[in-house]
Design a protein that fits this description.
By secondary structure, the chain is of the alpha+beta class. The longest helix has 20 residues. It is 25% helix and 20% strand. The strands form three sheets. Strands 3-4-7-9-8 form a five-stranded antiparallel β-sheet, covered by helices on one side. It has a four-stranded antiparallel β-sheet with strand order 2-1-6-5, with no helix packed on it. A hairpin with a 6-residue loop joins strand 1 and strand 2. It is globular, with a radius of gyration of 20 Å.
């Protein structure tokens, strides 16, 4: 059972894996050696190599845990958090800890081993975003979970252990400190100015016209004024909206489009200059 331990200085919760001495990253991986198509557990026909799927985008007559899927979600084989135990909290002197309750899933973005998100068709990309929302909605219904994050590691240097394109979904029993700080900051801004900070940021970006990356009728993508990372890009809905779970099909389609557009622009920086 993993544990969540709270740093008493800054209040940050940290996931501690006290049971496993080794995981996928302990094995040598050569970035220049692609995953073998014949052994990749994410490829169609080898569904038996993964845990039983929890959700998928499939044709109506396609059977679970068989080929025919467009997007497929399975539990992570090496989860950082587990769901089959009660949430228990404990104080140890000045320290706080809780059982490592949560969910950790792998969302396989398509059946083609060699296709990246930027190479998917419009319909395929929309299926990925639709699956993002379905997993977000379902995990949010569990009263033990307070925060759901969807993320993607690109390449083994970022932590990806399989070449086949995939994302990960993690549900946490608490809200991360950084997110709490953002919520409190947005609340403070609203109390001070009487307006939404994110709506004001959109207005400012249109006024400055320096950091906008791409936009469509529903979303604006821009580099933040005070970025923390190289290539950091924010995608914000133009309409005042706070919950991804409420996005309708049109909004999902627009999000899929702008996400793919942003990824294509980032990917262009990785290509060698001829």
């Amino acid at each position: 059972m993993p544990e969540l331990r709270r740093d008493p200085v800054v209040g940050r919760w940290v996931i501690i894996d006290s049971d496993h001495s080794k995981g996928p990253l302990d094995f040598s991986i050569d970035d220049n050696t692609p995953t073998n198509h014949e052994t990749c557990p994410f490829c169609p026909g080898r569904e038996y190599l993964t845990p039983q799927e929890v959700d998928a985008v499939r044709p109506p007559k396609s059977l679970a845990n068989n080929s025919g899927w467009l997007v497929r979600t399975v539990p992570n084989k090496f989860p950082v958090l587990v769901s089959d135990a009660p949430l228990q909290k404990e104080g140890i002197g000045i320290y706080d800890q809780m059982t490592g309750i949560g969910a950790h899933e792998v969302l396989i973005e398509g059946p083609d081993h060699d296709k990246s998100l930027t190479e998917l068709t419009k319909e395929e990309m929309q299926a990925v975003v639709s699956q993002y929302q379905k997993r977000f909605r379902q995990l949010s219904q569990d009263s033990r979970f307070k925060y759901v994050v969807i993320f993607k590691n690109f390449g083994s240097s970022a932590g990806a252990t399989l070449e086949h394109s995939h994302s990960q979904v993690i549900a946490l029993p608490m809200v991360p400190k950084t997110v709490l700080e953002e919520l409190k900051g947005a609340e403070h801004y609203h109390q001070y100015r009487g307006r939404c900070v994110f709506c004001d940021m959109i207005s400012q970006e249109y006024q400055d016209k320096e950091r906008i990356v791409v936009e469509n009728s529903s979303f604006l993508a821009f580099c933040p004024y005070a970025p923390r990372y190289a290539f950091e890009t924010w995608i914000i809905p133009k309409g005042h909206s706070a919950d991804f779970a409420n996005a309708d099909e049109t909004t999902q389609a627009h999000l899929a489009q702008i996400l793919q557009d942003v990824l294509k622009k980032v990917e262009s920086f990785r290509k060698p200059v001829v």
